[in-house]
TrEMBL record:
Record's bilayer topology term: Multi-pass membrane protein
Protein name: Solute carrier family 22 member 13-like
Pfam families: Sugar_tr (PF00083)
Principal localisation: membrane
Length: 580
């Protein structure tokens, strides 16, 4: 019995499939917590040298209420960083010699044991607690010489993504989706909880790596499980649903951070909230398609019957013809397996692969960069982060309908160009509500294209190497995530320049890709190589043959007009339904 027939017997979209999608949606929402919790754990706060920490101006009437500001004005030199929003230095103080006696009335030039020589803070730092009571930065003194370590820790989190995409992706095909999900989910929860008890930045980094590894592995395994259990006609909608629930995670995180201003309690609350996702694991069934592909027909039979019973469906006594299935497996095993080299073996396929890899890298770079820099927009951090998540919902909604109305190519290209221009325009707008608005336009565009390229890539790569191609694009995406926190270290406006220019280049490159809307998925390497060979950036290519063109001088199969025999195929065979 074919998998399509089995799916029909189980009800295609029954109670089990719905609950599995709900479960995956919850994991998607919580995945946002883990990824962006660092925005609040390691939020940047004002800090300055701790000078005369025991002096509270109690002996000086009129100065008690403003003692801190008085000491900052007296003992801190002007800031040397032109991009700093603070008028005084965060990392240096005027040198105080032994025996200095504090006197706010005495002119500094007349005070003994005081010198205008600026020296590094020698008694630690004082942190502004008006917005954040404690952060990783303030607790571990990650400022001045160590100010880049928090960003490195977020990059290490994305390194966990990268390693997980390789290891867990392989394990998922080797030991099964459910086992990979269970192991990854356990690592995610443990890593997130242990983060709360980090004693230094290096332990924090290790926990972030473990959390990233587990979170991405759990999501990858659960996503595959969900997609393999829903009919093709619903896969695009389900994928968009996961994107929307991920955006909802912004709301929960921003709300929790708004009420819990200390990073350890916030981390503990959010990590403990992930424990309940372990409870449904015993009820999650292994992928039927994976069991069949591995020849585990008895286990597949048992899973089918459990799901059928839960969905209140009946199945025949005999589901598999062991002889036919054995012959199919032997045929599959005797076939030459696809390889990574096939992506780059021919010029056209290599060009499309590299183009898509760059687009995935840029989308990840800009998306995570904009999401992690909401605290630099000059408005309330919590509301900026909240709005950053809110714009993703209409963006994903538009993407779901826009790709069917205007196609994959034009949507991706135009939105990337608009998003890139928005990032560049934001440079010239002072921090505040208007800069936030323009930045959110960029976030809207990049959120939409980030979801579209998943579908676009799946339709560009041929069936034998589709998984390998998307896997390589995913690796590029993870690299973009790793780079994004480091780009934010380059200065006040440099990140916007990097994001804007890279997005514009990505948008231009998309014009060199073929449109895939309404085309049959390429089934062979030859079909994929032919797709887009006649592509041009501007308009139609004239052709006197009877082939129906798609606006790029290509027929609906995506092959060159010289392939006349393709035009002889009936149109109803050419317009098969695409799936994400």
């Amino acid at each position: 019995m074919k998998l399509e027939e089995i799916a029909a017997l189980l009800g295609n979209f029954g109670r089990y499939q719905i609950l599995l999608i709900v479960y995956a949606s919850i994991l998607s929402c919580m995945g946002c917590w883990v990824t962006f919790s660092h925005v609040f754990f390691a939020a940047g706060t004002d800090h300055w040298c701790s000078v005369l920490p025991r002096e509270n101006c109690s002996g000086w009437p009129g100065f008690q209420d403003n003692c801190t500001e008085l000491k900052k004005a007296i003992f801190l030199p002007p800031s040397e960083d032109e991009s700093s929003i603070y008028p005084y230095s965060n990392c240096k103080q005027w040198d105080l010699l032994e025996g200095y006696v504090f006197d706010p009335y005495a002119p500094l030039a007349d005070v003994d044991n005081f010198t205008y020589s600026a020296v590094p803070c020698n008694s630690g730092w004082v942190y502004d607690t008006s917005q954040y009571k404690t952060t990783v930065n303030s607790e571990f003194d990650l400022v001045c010489e160590d100010k880049d370590l928090p960003s490195f820790s977020q990059s290490i989190y994305f390194v966990g993504f990268l390693v997980s995409s390789v290891i867990v992706g392989t394990l998922s095909d080797w030991i099964g989706r459910k086992t990979a999900l269970s192991v990854s989910l356990l690592l995610w929860v443990v890593g997130f909880i242990v983060t709360t008890f980090s004693v230094n930045i290096y332990m924090y980094m290790a926990c972030r790596f473990l959390s990233g590894f587990g979170e991405y592995g759990a999501w990858l395994s659960c996503f595959v499980l969900a997609i393999e259990n829903v009919p093709k006609s619903r896969r695009t909608a389900v994928t968009m649903l996961f994107g929307i629930t991920y955006a909802v995670g912004y709301f929960f995180l921003a709300t929790a951070a708004m009420f819990v201003r200390e990073w350890r309690p916030l981390c503990l609350i959010m990590s403990l909230a992930t424990i309940p996702v372990l409870l449904p694991l015993p009820f999650v069934q292994e992928s039927i398609s994976w069991l069949v592909s591995k020849g585990k027909l008895e286990e597949a039979d048992a899973v089918i019957r459990r799901v059928a019973k839960f969905n209140k469906k009946t199945v025949p006594d005999v589901l598999f013809d062991k002889e036919d299935d054995q012959n199919e497996m032997e045929s599959r095993e005797s076939a030459i397996p696809p390889s990574l080299i096939d992506l780059y073996r021919t010029s056209n396929m290599a060009a499309k692969t590299i183009n898509m890899q760059y687009n995935w890298l840029v989308n990840s770079l800009v998306y995570y960069g904009l999401s992690q820099s909401t605290g630099d927009l000059g408005v309330d951090d919590y509301w900026a982060f909240f709005v950053s998540g809110a714009v993703e919902i209409p963006a994903l909604t538009y993407a779901a309908f826009g790709v069917e109305r205007f196609g994959r190519k034009w949507n991706t290209a135009v939105l990337e160009l608009i998003g890139g221009v928005a990032c560049l325009i934001a440079i010239f707008i002072p921090t505040g509500i208007w800069r936030t608005a323009v930045s959110m336009i960029g976030k809207f565009c990049i959120s939409a294209t980030f979801s579209i390229i998943y579908l676009y890539s799946g339709e560009l790569f041929p069936t034998p190497i589709r998984a390998i191609g998307i896997g390589m694009c995913s690796v590029s995406s993870r690299i973009g995530g790793i780079i994004s926190p480091l780009v934010l270290l380059l200065g006040r406006n440099v990140p916007s320049i990097v994001f804007g220019c890279s997005a514009i280049v990505a948008g231009i490159l998309v014009f060199f890709l073929p449109e895939t809307k309404g085309r049959k998925l390429p089934q062979t390497l030859e079909e994929a190589e032919a797709m887009g060979k006649c592509n041009c950036m501007a308009g139609n290519v004239s052709n006197e043959s009877a082939i129906e063109l798609d606006g790029e001088g290509c027929d609906k199969e995506g092959v060159s007009p010289v392939s006349i025999e393709r035009s002889l195929r009936p149109k109803n065979e050419e317009k098969s339904e695409l799936s994400a």
